Amino acid sequence: MSTSRGSLADHPVIVIIGLVAAVVGLIVGVKELKGEDPAPPSVAGPTATDTFTAPTTPEAPRTPPSQEEDTPAPDDEPEAPEPTRDPVTRPVEEDTPEAAVVQTPGHTGALTVRIKLGSSGKTGPDTYRAGSRPGADTEVYDDTGRLDRGCYVKWTLSRGSEVVRRVTSGRCRPPSITLFNFEDSLDEPGSYTLTADVSTDWRQTGTESVAFEVVPG
Questions:
Q1: For residue 80, is it left (φ>0), alpha (ψ between -120 and 50) or beta?
Q2: 87-105 tens-digit pLDDT
Q3: Of 5-9, 62-66, 73-77, 114-118, where does the model show the most confidence?
Q4: Residue of 29, 83, 133, 153 with fewest CB within 10 Å of its CB?
């Protein structure tokens, strides 16, 4: 210890120079800290050493949306509003009796015609007494059944080749009276023929004849 103290005392100049250098270095360091400002970015651009570049991660490739994502599901589509329609007024249908519906005529096919002679003055299967008035009616049928209205009969009564009487009936089914009346047409004996020519509103036609004898009474 006595040796180091003695050596420093022997060189006072060196000690002073060291103190002065320390003070100067301290002053210079303080000035550098207070006096130097960083250059603004606009004046001097960053150098390669000052710029920090963050590592970039490559973006994953984007997958195009599938067709299912682009096209909305049928349930998601908005329903188009239905067009407004004016209410339709329908005629009120009247109730039709069941019998009338069943008997609605089709009126096709040929007619079947039958002549029915009355029994007044009848003396045999095809024989009548002179002066008799038996009367006659028709039965007319087509594919719908027996016809009444819309059906017409032209009667022709002949004795031999002579026409004795002609009558037209406005229907084919007898009402409360006989369709054909002989009146005095059978007063004379002879061979007679009664013919019924039938037509309908549906352009159907048919004919029938019946022959009989008139004998003196």
A1: beta
A2: 555 555 555 444 444 444 5
A3: 114-118
A4: 83
What pTM, to 2 d.p., does this model score?
0.52
List the structure tokens of 61. 């490739």
- Cα–Cα dist 54/71, whole Å: 41
Name which residue leads in pLDDT, 58 or 194.
194
